[in-house]
Amino acid sequence: MTSAELITELHATRPAADGALRERVRAIAAAEPVRRSSPFARLSRYSPRRFALVVVPAMAVALLAVAGVAGLLGSGSQPGVEAIRSDLSSQSATAPGTTTNPTRELAPQLKAGTSAADAATPAPTIGRAQRYSAQLTLSVKNIDALSDATQRALRITRDLGGYLVTASYATTDSGTSLLTLKVPTASVQQAIVRLSDLGKIVGQQIQIDDLQGQVDELTKRENGLRLQIARLSARLSAPGVDAETRATLEARRDAARSELAKVRQTNAQVAAEARFATIQLTLQTSESSAVVPVPSRFDNAVDRAVEILAIEATVVLYALVIVGPLALLALLVWLAQRGLRRRQDEHLLSSP
Amino acid sequence: MQTATPLTFADAAEHHLDDVFGYLLYLTRDRATADDLAGATFEKALRQWSRFDPKRGTARTWLLGIARTTALDAFRADSRRKKREEAAAEPEAREADFVVGLSPALQTALATLSAGEREVLALRIVIELDGDQTARVLGFSPTAVSTRLNRALTKLEEKVRNDDLR
Q1: Are A242 and A146 contacting, i.e. CB atoms less than 8 angstroms apart?
Q2: Reduced to 3 states, what is the DSSP secondary structure of residue B92?
Q3: How far is Cα A63 from Cα A54, in angstroms, rounded to an integer?
Q4: Which of A44, A309, B29, B51 shows the greatest Cβ crowding within 10 Å of its Cβ?
Q5: What is the distance between the alpha carbons of residues B102 and B98, in angstroms, rounded to a whole number?
Q6: How far is A303 from chain B (nearest CA, A)?
C-alpha cells in the first residue's frame, strides 16, 4: 500500500460523531448566552501583545495630552511672578551701560531701601594719600524727580568744593542720569551721605586704594634727585675742572633735572588724585528698573508642559526601575513554565 | 476544505463537531474517551466563546486548539492518576478498531504510531487542515508539521507493508 492509497483510505473513513454526542453538544450550545458587543467583551478578545501595542502608545499620548492641558491651564498669571519680578527689578537696578565688579568691592553693598543715615560709608584715612572711588545707584520715583535729583546732586558737589566730570541724562518712558563727580576726599563721606538722600539706594560700591607708599617713594626720589643736582652743581663750580669733566657733569645734572621734573609732575598727579574722590552716581526712575521681560502665555504653557512631562518621565522611570525586574522575572518564569509544559506535552504524545 | 466562519456557537459546534471528534479519536484511539473529550471541549469552548476573534483564525482551528488542550490536560491528569496508582507500567487497553471502516492492517499500523504522529495525520489528512492551520493548532512551525507528517506516513506505510508481507 502506497502513501497515496493510505491517504485515500484515511480520508474515506473520516470519523463522524454519533447521534448521542451530537445531541449532547447541541444541548451545550443551546446554553449559549446572547453575545453582547460590549467594549469589555471586545477588549477581552485582544491578545496581550495586541493590547500592549494599543495601550502603550495610548498611554504615551495621554501623558502628553495631560502635560499639554496642564500647561495651558497653568499658563495664566502664576502666583509669585510679580514678587519675583519686583525682586529682580531691585536686584538689577544698575543703569544700562554701567557695570559693577564685585571683586573690587571693599565696602559692604547696601540693601535696597537702606536709609542714607544708616549707611556704613567707610571714611578715608586722614593724613594718608588715598584714591577713593564710589559708585552709587539711586532710584527715584519719576522723571520729574530724576531731574530734580540730578540738579541737587550737582549743587551738593559744588557746595562741597567738587566739580562735575561727565554727565549723561536720558529720558523716554523712563529715565537715567549718569554723573561722574569729583569731590574733595576730605568731604567724600559727607557727599555720599547727602547724595544718598536723593533717592532710594539700590546699589553702592566703594573702593579705597592706598597711594601713600607711592607718594613716599616719589618724595624720596625727588629729594635724592635734588641732592644729586646740588652736588653736581657744587662740583661744577669748584676750580680746576677740565672741559671734558665739566661737560660730563653738566650732562648728568641736566638728566637729573629732567628726571626731577617728571617725578615732581607724577607726585603732583598722585597728590591731586588723593585730594579728590571720584563718585559715579546713577540715578534712575523706578519704571526703568522694573523693565523685566514678561513671559508670554505660550511660553508659560510650554514651560509648564515641560515641567509636567519631566515629572511624568520621572514617575515612568521609577516605575520601570521598580516593576521592570519583577516583570522580567515573571516573563522568565512564564517562559520556563511554557517550555516545561511543551516538553511534558511532547512526552505525553510520544507514546502510542 | 475551508468552512465559512459561523456567527453563533451553535453553528460552529454543528459544523465542526465531526472534525473535533475525529481529531480526538485519532489522538486517543478510544471512541469513549474521544466522546468525553469532545463534550468537554465544547463546554470549554462555550465558556471562552466571547474571546473568539474570527479575524485571528477560523472557528475550526480555534475549536481544534481547545480540543488539543483539553486532551493534553486529560492525559496529564491520567498520567498523574496512573503514577499514584503505580499502574503506569501496564499499557492501557485501546480499541483495536477505533475508526470504523479502516482496514485492519491500517488500524494496527496506526496503533503503533505515537499520539503526536497520529494527531498530525488526523489534522492534515483526515480533517484536511492546511499546513499553517495545523501549525496553529499544534503550536509548531509549518515546517515541523510537514516533517512530522512525512515521518508518520513513512512509518505507517512501512508498518502496513510489513503486515502485508506476513
Answers
A1: no
A2: coil
A3: 14
A4: B29
A5: 9
A6: 45
> Residue A328: its pLDDT value, please?
92
Read off the C-alpha cell for B103.
482496514
Q: How many residues does chain A have?
A: 352
List, as one string, the DSSP characters of A80-102: THHHHHHHHHHHT-SPTT----G
pLDDT for res A294: 63
Domain B9-165 CATH class label: mainly alpha
Residue listed under C-alpha cell 483526515: B126
Which residues in chain A have Cβ-Cβ distances shorter than 8 Å to B73?
Answer: none
**Calpha distance A219→A3 (Å, rounded):** 129
Please list the helix, strand and coil fractions of chain A in percent, rounded to the nearest 5, in that order: 60, 15, 25
- pLDDT value of position B96: 64
**Chains A–B, number of C-beta pairs less than 8 Å apart:** 128
Mutation choice for A interface testing from B75, B81, B92, B138 by most A CBs within 10 A: B75
Query: Which of B22, B56, B116 has its CB closest to that of A15?
Result: B22
SS3 A179: strand
Q: State the Cα angle at A312 between A311 and A317, rounded to 5°.
A: 100
A41: chain B residues, CB-CB within 8 Å: 50
- Would the CB atoms of B157 and A349 count as touching at under 8 Å? no
Cell of A107: 565696602
The single-letter code of the amino acid at A347 is H
A170 pLDDT band (50/70/90 cuts)? confident
Q: Which residues of A touch B128 (CB under 8 A)?
A: 11
